[in-house]
Amino acid sequence: MDSTLDTLSVPKTETKKKTKERTAQPYWNPYLSGFGLGLVLLAAFVIMGRGLGASGAYSTVVASGVNAIAPHHAAGNAFYEGYLGNGTTSPFKSWLVFEVLGLLVGGFISGALAGRIKKTTEKSEHISFKMRYVYAFIGGALMGIGAKLARGCTSGQALTGGALLNAGSWIFMLMVFAGAYAAAYFVRRQWL
Amino acid sequence: MMAPFYKFGLFGSEVSLIVAFIIGIGFGFFLERAGFGSARKLAAQFYFRDMAVFKVMFTAIVTAMIGLFYFAWIGWLNLSLVYLTPTFLWADLVGGLILGVGFVVGGYCPGTSGVACVTGKIDGYIFVLGLFFGIFAFGEAFPWIEGFFNAAPMGQITLSQLLDIPYGVLVFIVVLIALGGFLLAEKVEKYFARKDAEKAL
User: Fold this and answer.
1) If contacts are CB pairs under 8 Å, which of residues 171-200 in chain B contact chain A?
2) Phi, psi for residue A120 in degrees, rounded to 5
3) Alpha carbons B37 and B39: distance in angstroms, whole number
4) In chain A, N or C terminus with fewer CB closer than 10 Å?
5) Residue among B158, B90, B94 at smallest CA distance from A167
6) What is the DSSP code string of B131-170?
7) Number of cross-chain residue pairs from A and B with Cβ atoms under 8 Å apart
8) Chain B residue numbers touching A59 (CB-CB < 8 A)
9) Tens-digit pLDDT profile for residues A125-145
10) 0.80 exceeded by the pTM?
11) DSSP assignment letter at B88
């Protein structure tokens, strides 16, 4: 009697555990996700006459922050002024800001549907959390400088300009891969 | 109705913000589907372990490029009304190089770091803080680097104009290069998977 009860109860607890932990689904095939991404990009071209972007929205946040703290300082700087506009409308009423807000929602929807929303830090076991955060900050800062210098990031330049066969975007894209492959060796312990 | 719709006055700037939001949802959705909310997945590209960055990017580029070419060819889309970022040789070269280093050091790019944040990656938030700092540093240094930023202006120019190759021919060449790249990417992944397995033994 006891043994039959045991065998019956084992699968029960297993299914309970499974629903509780909700294992994350695997990612989509890269060609399928790429095709979807390409259709979104094409929709932006057809509907709006422009491509996708990301870094511009972050620049609006920075320029608005500087403007809030030191308006005179921001007014004298052509870079900040470009994101602040002429003052008749809020700088946050911009296409890229709304697009990035959508990006956050879309990323959340996809992650939630696949059970991939989890508080975690992306790194290998060879480096500490502290080091990973230092790298993340430095990498982010370099990304910010590079994206502003190149007038766009992986979205606005590489993806958008790539599809438009924009000369500068293809130069940019080659250099992104060159820079990343050249630096990869020095930060390998972070990832491998 | 001719495309781009917005440029032909189908809707105004207020509605364009709603369009931006919806397009953004699609953008974020497919980035997350591809696994680009994960820095390890993204960085693996630069160690030849997972070539998803290349595959996703070039599939997207080829898809949108063929669509654009086709719509322009049948005369439905006016390509001259699609915004083309002007080329500045030195800023594009050096900016791309710095961004590439930042990509492998930080593990994300601006768009993917947003997806990382909403899916709970702590390093994604730190990366965004760094991003804000970098943009601020660029803004503060702007008066000094403005000359370099605007050096070697080439205007709004496509590869087809620069290399004097007909648009359709170049589209075809890029498709061939992408297909060759995909085949190579699959081979490279298999090679490194085998090597890693041998090492583990």
Assistant:
1) 171, 174, 182
2) -155, 170
3) 7
4) N
5) B158
6) HHHHHHHHHHHHHHHHHHHTSSEEES-BHHHHHT--HHHH
7) 533
8) 135
9) 999 999 999 999 999 999 999
10) yes
11) E
Separation CA A138–CA B43 (nearest Å): 15
Angle between helices A55-69 and A95-113 (to 10 degrees): 120
Residues shown for chain A: 192
Residue B181: phi and psi, rounded to 5, are -60, -40
Amino acid at A137: F
- Rounded to 5 degrees, φ, ψ at B37 are -90, 0
Residues 5-64 of B with CB under 8 A from A: 5-7, 16-35, 37-41, 43-47, 49, 51-52, 55-64
A29 exposure class (CB count in 10 Å sphere: 0-12, 13-18, 19+): middle
List C-alpha distances in Å: B128 to A105, A179, B108.
Answer: 17, 20, 9
Tell me the ipTM for this assembly: 0.97
Residue with tokens 């439905």: B76
User: In this predicted model, what pLDDT tens digit does every residue of A86-102 receive, in sequence order?
Assistant: 888 899 999 999 999 99
Scanning A107-166 for CB atoms below 8 A from B yields: 107-111, 114, 116-124, 132-133, 135-166
Q: How far is CA B59 from the centre of its chain?
A: 11
Which chain A residues are closer than 8 Å to B150 by Cβ? none
Residue found by looking up tokens 């993340």 in the block: A136
Residue type, B46: F
Q: What is the DSSP letter of A25?
A: P
